[in-house]
Amino acid sequence: MYYVYIVECKDGTLYTGWTVDLEKRINAHNLGKGAKYTRGRAPIELKYYEQLDSKEAALRREHAIKKLSRNDKIELIMYDI
């Protein structure tokens, strides 16, 4: 299983990524061992995720989400609640 996720950083910015182990990846971000963008912006909080069946699908979805505006990402997060 593959996951695409959106986290909110302590500075209020949103970061989108993909992983095969969501819990491990969130912990890595919070320990400063995740993406370069999230280093120094911890703690981060998971706001949204999707499960996908293939790496290719996860990469496509990650790319599509990254192209969204901040407001569209917030709507996506709010719609999921």
Automatic annotation (TrEMBL):
<dbReference type="Pfam" id="PF01541">
    <property type="entry name" value="GIY-YIG"/>
</dbReference>
<dbReference type="InterPro" id="IPR050190">
    <property type="entry name" value="UPF0213_domain"/>
</dbReference>
<dbReference type="GO" id="GO:0004519">
    <property type="term" value="F:endonuclease activity"/>
</dbReference>
<keyword id="KW-0255">Endonuclease</keyword>
<keyword id="KW-0378">Hydrolase</keyword>
<feature type="domain" description="GIY-YIG">
    <location>
        <begin position="1"/>
        <end position="75"/>
    </location>
</feature>
<protein>
    <submittedName>
        <fullName>Endonuclease</fullName>
    </submittedName>
</protein>
<keyword id="KW-0540">Nuclease</keyword>
<comment type="similarity">
    <text>Belongs to the UPF0213 family.</text>
</comment>
<dbReference type="InterPro" id="IPR035901">
    <property type="entry name" value="GIY-YIG_endonuc_sf"/>
</dbReference>
<dbReference type="InterPro" id="IPR000305">
    <property type="entry name" value="GIY-YIG_endonuc"/>
</dbReference>
